[in-house]
Amino acid sequence: MVVDNVSRMVQRRLGLALRARVAGEDAPERAQRIWGTTGPRWFTPQDPIWRVHADASMFAGGITSLLLQSLHPLAMAGVAGHSGYKSDPWGRLQRTSHYIATTTYGTIEDAESAIAKVRAIHERVRGRDERGRAYRASDPHLLLWVHVAEIDSFLRAYQAFGAHPLGPRETDRYIEQTAVAARLLGVPEPPTDALGLRRALDLYRPELEGTTAAREAARFLLLDPPLPLVARPGYGTLASGGVSLLPHWARAMLRIPLPTLVARGLAQPLGRLGVAAVRWGMAGIEARRPHLAAQALEAGEA
Known about the structure:
Helix content is 71%, strand content 2%. By secondary structure, it is mainly α. A two-stranded antiparallel sheet has the order 1-2. The chain is globular and about 65 Å long.
């Protein structure tokens, strides 16, 4: 009994600490808004997007996504110049996680409102990269790159570390569902199946570069994260998993010395361990969320 109580206490503390980092100190209030508000939603608990975005593998997939996205020089210039990822990394993460949660689980009204806010921000983000090339965050071409890099990373993470990997039909359905918010955000013709996703990623390969800014971002994410020393080993397992999911050419561009065999034989198992720890911690504080959202969805349809 004592061991069980201690275990539950440790689990809850880990879950609360993770939630505070990823979702912010006001996470309970935001969660109540997302999961408890009555009204129609785009997706249900049976949909693949619900399962993928709720899974702990998103912690590793998010790292993969940031590293892969950084390889487009204009997208990276926008991040370096406007996001404050070094001065306020947790704030950026919390805003991103709130957006994904709202557009996945929130009411359609709240999801559309969140998308409108991001579009307004994008309109203000513009400038030039280190070679003088102009960029703007609202550029449909850049928006498509950010979208496909993100979705590919989330899928890779879920298939490698997720509780129940998706089958081919579910994979296509997940990609199709992510296109709903992407279109409203301004992404032109987002892919709706795995083949389309792969083709879209391949089309961007000639534009990708391992710029100084991209390599600096990789060092920050992997070697100097804004965490106390006691938390770094746990983060390191997630970072190892995230790096292992990158295509070999992406690791080479970022000068990450991780051969493919080492990535599969060592880094991925470390990532699996880290994701399992996150899943255990989060299970102690999120057990009622799907039930609350299902109730709110049913009430909105009544």
